[in-house]
Each structure stands twice: as C-alpha cells, then as structure tokens.
Design a protein that fits this description.
11 helices; about 75% helix; MetI-like fold; mainly alpha
Length: about 270
Amino acid sequence: MTRKTRSSRKPLLQPSTRLISLIAVAIVLLLWFIASTLQWVSPLFLPAPQVVLAAFFNIFQQGYKGQPLWLHGFASLNRLFWAFLLTVATAIPLGLLSGCSRKVQALLDPFIEFYRPLPPLAYYTLLIIGLGIEDQSKIALLYLAGFAPLYLAALAGVKKIPGDRINAARSLGASGVQVFIYVIFPSTLPELFTGLRTAIGFMYTTLVAAEMVAAVSGLGWMVLDASKFLRSDVMIVGIFLMGGIAMLIDGGIRWIQHRQLPWMGRE
C-alpha cells in the first residue's frame, strides 16, 4: 500500500517563516526607535518613527507641493503600467520566436547584447531629446530596461525544453502551431514568470531614477524634491511607499505564479 503524498498546494510562506519575518522587521523598527530616541544619529538624517508617521499622515491629508499623494502614486504606476504592457507584448513573443529560430536570434542578439549592460540613465538624455520630457520618454526608458531580461528569460525557457518532448508531439501529428501552443509556450512558463519578476524589478528601479532626473510628479520626484530641503522624514515616507508598492507588485506576480504553476519550488 502506497503512502499518501502531501498536497503540493502549500502556502508560499509557512507560519514559522512568517513569524521569523515579523520578528526581523520588529527588531529593525526597535533599533530604529532606540537609535533615534537616544540620538545616536542626528535627527536631521534619521528622524524618529513617530516623526515619519506624522509626515505620512500630513502628506496623505494635505498632499505634497499642491498635489495629493495618490496623484504622485498614480503618475508612477501609470508610467510603469504602459511600459510593462509594451514589454510583455513584444519581449515574450520575440524571445519565444528567437528560441525557435536561430536566424531570428542572430538578428536580435547584437542589439540586445549591446544595450543590455548600459545603465538606463546613460541613454535617457537621448530619449528626452527625441520624445520630450513628458511621460513618453519615461515609458520608453522603462520599456528598454524591462525588455532585455524578459526577452532572455523567454529565450532560455525555449532552449531548456527537451527535444524529445517536441518530437513526441510531432510524431503524434501535431502541427507547428499546435506544438508552439501546447508544448513550447506552457513549458516556458516557469522561466517567463521569473523573467517577469526580474523585468518589473529593473523597470521599477529605472522609474524612480527617471523621475529623479526629469519629472514634476511621482514618488521618485517627491523624494528628490524633499532631499533639496533636507526633509528626511518625507524622504523616508517616499522610500517606504515605493518599497511597499514594489512588494505588492512582486507579490501579485508570485501569487499568479503559485496559482498557475503550483509545482514550482516543490519537491
């Protein structure tokens, strides 16, 4: 009699690991409170947690520089959304196509490998000259930042597919389109989700940098503007907001991945 296997649909974080995470966060907050209370660091550089919390409620109620807080958040997320949509619509198909065709890969590789190591801000000025200082240049910058990692993830996913799996489908009479839809694309989903998480991380980091260089709205701009007046409390509020939004976005992708690919990361 075989032993029953445990269900593979376990939560991403077990209760014990959640507790460890909560304890780690609590320790950091406690050290922050002690350091600020005893003034181990000047309040100008490290305001107390209660000061930061008061700054958050003040910005939440009155806004920052004449604009409500939600508008700054919406400006950042709107740029990120359109860039992410364009990235998914182009990087995944081209990555899959390159994995299936060496000629397509040879055509795209020189350009991707050339610009991929470049810091996004290195060519941001060229985008501003060509597209202007408004959102178009920022969306283009985010698109370029996210395209390469997602394209490479899709390409790697195709390369990892065992040849026997494709040959078996063809031997059963599957056409090229059917092989792509029912074999190649599903087999690349683990790499695609990893690529999505990596791409969104690059894009989010680039978004903050772009708003710090040329913008009049957004969370990145708010942090930069606060730094000019040594408002470290506002800066920390902006940093916490950006980090929280990034965690929510990544958590959403991980949740979809867990729902669609429950076997990933399981033994």
